[in-house]
Amino acid sequence: MMKTTILAIESSCDETAAAVIKNGQHIKSNVVASQIELHRRYGGVFPEVASRQHILAIDTVIRDALAQAETDFSTLDAVAVTRGPGLAGSLLVGVNAAKGIAMAQNLPLIGVNHLEGHLYSNWLATDDAAPEIVFPVLVLIVSGGHTEIVLMRGHGDYRILGRTIDDAAGEAFDKVARLLGLGYPGGPAIQRAAAGGDARAFDLPRAKTKRPYDFSFSGLKTAVLRLVQRYSKNLQRPSDVAQNAPDASNLPVADIAASVQWAIVDALVQKTRAAADAFGVQEILLAGGVSANGALRQEMSARAGCPVRFPPLSLCTDNAAMIGAAAHWRYLRGDFSALEMDVIPNLRLK
């Protein structure tokens, strides 16, 4: 197999990241500048703030990635960058930086789908032994903006079996966390609160969808809102609940959090298992920020009926290493991008 050294850049949302990846699996460096504390005050990512922070951080992050890898531009085979999906302003910062490097250093440019990057987080080596993954595999991508079941028959061969028709799983966690006054980001906050609660305390809905492997979590959010209103009299609007729920001493936050987590995890595992059985896959892979959830990992491993693989916690959230891993296989296919490449905020995996 052809050997590669790729500089990868990721700026699709609120993480400014750069990495140097060898042969699509070995992490020479992986630098992430997080904006999470900045956006926490807004209860979510504020797009204009995010893009400005990317501008401030991008040069330093790239230089740090090269320095930590003990390399420079002269050793690179290509520069890769996330072109979508994501926030337009944030994506533009990374894409323009990658274009500048590609043009100045006469390097091939590789535009990568952010979701494809999450898929390839499972191919990255965290020690000397690189993962050996046998196709076909089923990948559950779960993050703040995406929930999709992908059948992967080979490198670059993707078939979307199901996706969310409204809220993504991570988005549902964020919205429920706001209703419960638990702060941002919602996923980790819900998991912490759920540790002290009873997951069977409240029978929350699992939506039925027309397509068997699609997801829907908006009804769950509405059910939680009504539940919180029942315990918190005089709070009628979601904004009221989010602002005042922490003062509602009779609100069983831990039990609600545990019940919500169980409802989301149960839906994810149930539909992923059904798809895995139907398509006879070798393994199930988890990817995306919500794949860090301990309950999801435990339930999927227990109920999948086949081996389950998930990335280390450091590679679940947005990072550039996964973009470099995906770019390696595009490099081998000669799938390069023109310098005229534009960002596509709603880019789909195909």
Can you walk through the features of this model?
By secondary structure, the chain is of the alpha/beta class. It has eleven helices and ten strands. The strands form two sheets. Strands 3-2-1-4-5 form a five-stranded mixed sheet, sandwiched between helices. Strands 8-7-6-9-10 form a five-stranded mixed sheet, with helices on both faces. A hairpin with a 2-residue loop joins strand 7 (147-154) and strand 8 (157-163). Helix 5 packs across helix 6 and helix 6 (186-194) packs across helix 9 (253-279). The longest helix is centred in the last third of the chain and has 27 residues, at 253-279. The protein is globular and about 65 Å long.
Q: How do the helices and strands line up, and which of them pair or pack?
A:
Layout: E1 5-10, E2 15-22, E3 26-34, H1 36-40, H2 47-68, E4 78-84, H3 88-105, E5 109-113, H4 114-120, E6 137-142, E7 147-154, E8 157-163, H5 169-179, H6 186-194, H7 218-231, H8 238-244, H9 253-279, E9 283-287, H10 294-303, E10 308-309, H11 321-332
Parallel strand pairs: 1-4, 4-5, 6-9, 9-10
Antiparallel strand pairs: 1-2, 2-3, 6-7, 7-8
Helix pairs in contact: 2-3, 4-11, 5-6, 5-7, 5-9, 6-9, 9-10
Helix-and-strand structural type: alpha/beta
Shape: globular
Order of helices and strands: EEEHHEHEHEEEHHHHHEHEH
How is the main sheet built?
5 strands, mixed
Please name the fourth-level CATH homologous superfamily of the largest domain.
ATPase, nucleotide binding domain
Write down the CATH topology of the largest domain: Nucleotidyltransferase, domain 5
Q: How much of the sequence is in beta strands?
A: 15-25%
Tell me how many strands there are.
10
**Major sheet: arrangement of strands:** 3-2-1-4-5
Overall pLDDT score: 92
What's the gyration radius in Å?
20 Å
Number of helices: 11
Distance between the termini: 24 Å
**Uncertain residue ranges:** 238-247
CATH architecture of the largest domain: 2-Layer Sandwich
What's the quaternary structure here? single chain
Counting structural domains, the number is 2
> Class of the largest domain, according to the CATH hierarchy?
Alpha Beta
- Portion in helices: 40-55%
